Automatic annotation (TrEMBL):
Keyword Zinc: yes
InterPro entries: FabA_FabZ, FabZ, HotDog_dom_sf, Ribosomal_Su5_D2-typ_SF, UDP-acyl_GlcNac_deAcase, UDP-acyl_GlcNac_deAcase_C, UDP-acyl_N-AcGlcN_deAcase_N
Designated name of the protein: Multifunctional fusion protein
Function text: Involved in unsaturated fatty acids biosynthesis. Catalyzes the dehydration of short chain beta-hydroxyacyl-ACPs and long chain saturated and unsaturated beta-hydroxyacyl-ACPs.
Annotated Gene3D superfamilies: Hotdog Thioesterase, lpxc deacetylase, domain 1, lpxc deacetylase, domain 2
Major location (coarse): cytoplasm
Binding annotation for Zn(2+): 79, 261, 265
Reaction equation(s) it catalyzes: a UDP-3-O-[(3R)-3-hydroxyacyl]-N-acetyl-alpha-D-glucosamine + H2O = a UDP-3-O-[(3R)-3-hydroxyacyl]-alpha-D-glucosamine + acetate; a (3R)-hydroxyacyl-[ACP] = a (2E)-enoyl-[ACP] + H2O
CDD domains, per the entry: FabZ (cd01288)
Cross-referenced HAMAP family: FabZ, LpxC
Amino acid sequence: MNDKQHTIKAPVTVSGIGLHTGVVSNMTFMPAPINHGYKFQRIDLPEQPIVDADVDNVVDLSRGTTIEQNGARVNTVEHVLAALVGLEIDNVLIQIDGPEPPIMDGSSILFVRPLLEVGLEEQNALRNFFEVPEEIMFRDGSRETEIAILPLDDYRVTVMVDYHSPVLGSQHASLTDLRQFKDEIASCRTFCFLHEIEMLYKQNLIKGGDLSNAIVVVDRVVEDNELDYLSDLLKKPKVAVKKEGILNNVDLRYKNEPARHKLLDLIGDLALVGRPLKGQILAARPGHASNVAFAKKIKKYIKETSVKNVPVYDPKKSPVMDINRIAQTLPHRYPFLLIDKIIHLDETTVTGVKNVTMNESFFQGHFPGNPVMPGVILIEAMAQTGGIYVLSTVPDPENYWTYFMGVDKCRFRRKVVPGDTIIFKCELLAPIKRGIARMQGQAYVAGQLVMEAEMLASIVRKDA
């Protein structure tokens, strides 16, 4: 996956009819600056309001995902968003002169191709990944739906669909590398069952539906008079049924094209989380309602874990302890004095800072050519931060040693590399008794948790 943010090199326009509204629209992808994200702009409305592609803006899930903000609504956004995620494009303004993106052929491929034609442009900023630290699960018993995302330093999706249909049966589809999206997933079209068509028309949906932009699955015997009725409904001279149960001799692009399209929909809907994801996504019988509910659950998790209690480091403010005071307190010296500043110290908590540079001695031998800070060094730096707290509890810290006794529940969430500034926060879990301190520690880079652990340390008087 790309580490840097990307936009497109030039504007590009696609035109066509909307699947549900039946309104012809012109949609232009515009380059956008760093950290802009995905935004739609209704240029046909007064003041040309902008609608953020955000799960909090979802207002309707009738056979597609509709968002609304600032008095403007955009229908069926999932295929457009899937194309952007699949190409690892981070920042785009999508100007549209109607209520719904063109359905094109019912897939994402006719968005992907023009985007690739204008080309992608790398931007000088890192992508703000959400790297899932633990399993996040969604279940909907009424729909027999389950979706989970598991920790993984990559983006992978596996989908299973089962409509209890003799035509479709149970199908699976997987995306193991985002680079596969344009060739393996993007061209997979939307679909529905024959018995749904009349209902959808009566619900004022699929006004732009056509056998050229959707697969219609026939899973029962259909009489000739019903086929004639469908011909009139779809404004087609003749409607036929293939032996495998697909209307009008439409050839499937893949045997499991419906499952692949559900995977495409899931990718597009999860773009509404607002950040690129790193994780293994497993979905059984997903749909837009469950996808959006899952996206809301992920966003809530991010808000609760990534923002709450993350230490704020302002380098302009004077530290509680600079490197000289730290050296007077801790016995460690180069190359093992690992903390540069202490920026907070109170009755239960200490916060330290380490600036990671390529000059660190351990980079000479740890993954040469791919410098990654060793996990054991992260633990040691966190322990030194906790040691500062423990020594602050005695009046004469110069007369004490602190010894690291144990570590528990240690998890590494992402790699730390040269150029990172690590913020270590250690909090006492219980009062110090008999010189034993138990602390909970976290390490953050750019507000994101990179490591956490519980630590046990002992404070011992030097002449004991």
